Amino acid sequence: MANTEEIRLNKYIAMCGVCSRREADKLIEDGRIKVNGIVALPGTKVTEGDEVLYDDNRISPSSKKVVLAYNKPVGVVCTERDEHAERTIIEDLNYSERVTYAGRLDKDSEGLMILTNDGDLIQAMMKSRNGHEKEYIVEVDHRFTDSFIKGMEKGVYLEDLQQTTRPCKLTRLDEKCFKIILTQGLNRQIRRMCEAFGYKVVKLKRVRILNIELKGLNHSEYRELKGDELRELYKEAGL
């Protein structure tokens, strides 16, 4: 970014690997961002020469783009800080540079997450309309029928969200376990979908995001994405 080039503050915050642009808007609204010592307002624009503080700590874009695949264990919370959380994702990852996640997993879920300091990648992966595939292995509390599979695949009306899920693909793995591929990420979507049919999720693991697979990573482990795998991720994300 050239010294004279102005960009929106929410984009700048995302470029610093703090969070997505949408979450950056919330930080600005909550008064947690200052520009040159003044609490920032929505719509603020900044240049490279401005001092931007997040909770009174200076932030700036990294010159090196980092993209990580990480295996989140059950119990780890997807947040930068939470005084009530036993362990946050940032603490569990313990990475040397500031990165943030493109898409959450709830506390009771486990599996693959992508973390990066590239705000453009986060933005691309978070856009629901892009229809990026995410694959999960799910275990429910009792046997399910073929009609359950067909109903889930067709799309489920979630009354509390007043929204019908997109069609998806299910594959039976055994009498209580299935694989599901989604192209959207509503809040606790799979759990809500199963509850609509009278099932409770007892285990949920994400095993793939776009072309990136979980295989080879133990709980709390991460690996840096490089080469063809990283190039394919950017391509599938639309960048």
Can you offer a commentary on this structure?
There is one protein chain. The relative contact order is 0.16. The radius of gyration is 19 Å and the shape is elongated. It has 7 helices and 17 strands. Strand 8 and strand 9 form a beta hairpin. It has 3 domains: 52 residues, RNA-binding S4 domain (Structural Genomics Hypothetical 15.5 Kd Protein In mrcA-pckA Intergenic Region, Chain A, Roll), CATH 3.10.290; 86 residues, Alpha-Beta Plaits; 77 residues, Alpha-L RNA-binding motif (Alpha-Beta Plaits). Strands 7, 8, 9, 10, 13, 14, 15, 16 and 17 form a 9-stranded mixed β-sheet that branches. It has a 4-stranded antiparallel β-sheet with strand order 3-2-5-6, with no helix packed on it. Strands 1-4 form a two-stranded antiparallel sheet. With 239 residues, the chain is α+β, with helices and mostly antiparallel strands.
Key traits:
3 domains; 24% helix; alpha+beta; Alpha-Beta Plaits; four-stranded antiparallel β-sheet; 239 residues; Structural Genomics Hypothetical 15.5 Kd Protein In mrcA-pckA Intergenic Region, Chain A
Give a nutshell description of this structure.
The chain has 239 residues and is of the alpha+beta class. Helices cover 24% and strands 27% of the residues.
Topology (elements, then pairings):
Blueprint: E1 7-8, H1 9-15, H2 21-29, E2 33-35, E3 38-39, E4 45-46, E5 52-54, E6 57-58, E7 67-72, H3 89-93, E8 100-101, E9 110-116, H4 119-126, E10 134-140, H5 146-154, E11 157-158, E12 163-164, E13 169-172, E14 177-182, H6 189-196, E15 201-209, E16 212-213, E17 222-224, H7 227-237
Parallel strand pairs: 9-15
Antiparallel strand pairs: 1-4, 2-3, 2-5, 5-6, 7-9, 7-17, 8-9, 10-14, 10-15, 11-12, 13-14, 15-16
Helix pairs in contact: 1-2, 1-4
